[in-house]
Design a protein that fits this description.
The protein has 491 residues and is α/β, with parallel strands linked by helices. It has three domains: 2-42 and 199-337 and 457-484, Rossmann fold, CATH 3.40.50.1000; 47-193, no CATH class; 346-442. Helix content is 47%, strand content 13%. It has 16 helices and 19 strands. Strands 1-18-15-14-3-9-10-13-11-12 form a ten-stranded mixed beta sheet. The protein has a five-stranded antiparallel beta sheet with strand order 7-6-5-4-8. α2 (47-64) packs across α5 and α14 (351-390) runs antiparallel to α15 (394-436). It is globular and about 105 Å long. The two termini are 28 Å apart. The chain binds magnesium ion. The site of magnesium ion (MG) has 7 residues, from loops.
Length: 491
């Protein structure tokens, strides 16, 4: 009983950016294995530095391929594009969509689209989100940033690039793949990981705590062995006396996993010979200390003798890591949403502003009801005037006229009050979200509505948090309970 009290108190004292938020109840007692993605999950990136080299390396390939030299002048802006946006490759537009598939914000290059343009292009008929590219991963940010800059260049310099926006995007994809293949990005990170990877102070504590509690940890990354080894060594080598090598933390290590194919396909596992880089067939189990390449989740479960719901997988990619593992295999999922680290403290500061917005909205609702009542009165009085006129009852008609005019005056005042209040509410919402991001606002909201990203997080991630090391604040036997088990009428 005493232990339970202490734990509850510890959780209550946590800052919001240290907490784990629960969509679906998760009992850690029934979790045998915890898997980790590497990039942006175990290994947080210095995004500004990393995206700048990805932007530059890809831009150089555009110029090599005969695009105008002037593109060299394009500047990398780490702050414009955020995750959760959709890209309309055909029109060169960036969109922020709410949970009801309504396009609330849109840009063509750097030019904002007004309400009417958004209506004509997207909101006048049913919006098909799957026809657009969704920015789910951090790696896509520099890619889309470059696309946005080129679209803007095309807007300001018509006919200098004789291609459609979709064709430019296909080239962009090709050049990014090339930059990955020829090592223009990877080699720079491997040469100086300290510039690109963030060494979090508590990066190994959560792992240790879970190992001590008897959990089996595994690494499952799409990165290749050479890159994985450099990054993981940089982060974990000699970080703790009992775990000299980073490999010591994990019971299974899988690289080059090709997620989401790992979760739905049937790729075989290959055993990697670390020194030579050659591979051979695996035995009938996955051995601790060995490195495996490729593979698939079904076989992983068989070889490790586990059921889907006994595995918790932690990743940062809503589609590649979370949706697929949850949907096809019923793995439990923890989504790392690192943006929360920046957003939650601001939202805490803005709590009062949020309360004011809610109060104003309640006033708005009662004004609306009063307006509705006035309109009904005006309608019924008009009918009575009609009747009095038909009956030639001039006296009654004239007294009713006076009455209806009073109502109409009041109606004008109410309408004015409502439009003023609407302006105040919108301004307050705008100011609040500008404090988080001056273009797109909160990741999980559009205005006060849930964003499409938030809706996916809610649907697919069992739990989510700002960094994976936050698991250290909770017991390895913790039962995470979801407030979503309540219906709106229960609250
Ligand atoms: Mg990742």
């Amino acid at each position: 009983m005493i232990m339970r009290k202490n734990l509850t108190e510890t959780v209550l004292k946590l800052e919001k950016s240290q907490r784990i938020f629960v969509n679906r109840s998760l009992n850690m007692k029934s979790i045998k294995s915890i898997g980790y993605d590497m990039d942006h999950t175990l290994a947080p990136y210095n995004r500004e530095n990393f995206e700048a080299i990805a932007f530059r390396a890809t831009l150089e390939k555009f110029i090599d391929a005969g695009y105008p030299q002037e593109l060299n002048e394009l500047k990398f802006d780490p702050n414009f594009v955020i995750r959760g946006l959709l890209v309309d490759k055909e029109r060169g537009n960036l969109l922020k969509v709410d949970g009801h598939k309504y396009v609330k914000l849109a840009f063509h290059g750097r030019r904002p689209l007004d309400k009417q343009e958004r209506h004509i292009l997207y909101n006048s008929e049913s919006f098909k989100a799957h026809e657009f590219l969704s920015i789910d991963s951090f790696f896509a940010l520099s890619e889309v940033q470059l696309f946005t800059e080129i679209v803007d260049y095309m807007r300001l310099n018509p006919r200098k690039i004789e291609k459609t926006f979709s064709e430019v995007y296909s080239d962009l994809r090709k050049f990014i793949d090339l930059s990955h293949q020829d090592g223009s990005i990877k080699n720079q990170v491997m040469a100086k990981p300290e510039l690109y990877i963030v060494k979090e102070k508590y990066r190994f504590n959560a792992l240790l705590r879970l190992i001590e509690a008897g959990k089996n940890l595994f690494l499952l990354t799409n990165s290749k062995w050479d890159y994985t080894d450099v990054i993981m060594s940089y982060l974990f080598e000699n970080a703790h006396g009992d775990f000299k090598k980073w490999q010591d933390y994990f019971s299974q290590i899988i690289v080059g996993s090709k997620k989401p194919a790992f979760f739905i396909g049937d790729n075989p596992f290959e055993l990697l010979e670390q020194s030579t880089g050659t591979s051979s067939e695996i035995g009938d189990t996955l051995v601790k200390g060995e490195i495996y390449n490729g593979g698939n989740a079904k076989l992983f479960q068989e070889l490790t003798n586990q059921k889907g719901d006994e595995i918790l997988y932690c990743g940062d990619h809503i589609y590649g890591d979370i949706i697929r593992s949850k949907e096809t295999l019923n793995w439990r999922t923890l989504l790392v949403v690192e943006e929360l680290d920046h957003e939650l403290p601001i939202l805490e500061q803005e709590k009062r502003a949020f309360e004011e917005i809610k109060d104003n909205m309640a006033i708005r609702e009662s004004l609306d009801e009063e307006l509705h009542r006035l309109r009904s009165l005006i309608n019924s009085t008009a009918k009575q005037i009609n009747l009095a006129t038909i009956k030639n009852d001039k006296k009654k008609a004239s007294s009713l006229e006076k009455e209806i005019n009073k109502y109409k005056d009041k109606q004008i005042i109410k309408e004015h009050e409502i439009s003023e209040l609407d302006y105040t509410i919108n301004e307050k919402i705008r100011l609040r979200s500008n404090k988080i991001h001056d273009v797109w606002g909160e990741l999980m909201k559009v205005g006060l509505e849930k964003s499409r990203f938030a809706q996916q997080v809610e649907e697919y991630a069992c739990v989510y948090t700002s960094k994976v090391s936050n698991l250290r604040f909770y017991s390895a036997r913790k039962k995470f309970s979801s407030p979503h088990d309540l219906m709106p009428h229960d609250v």
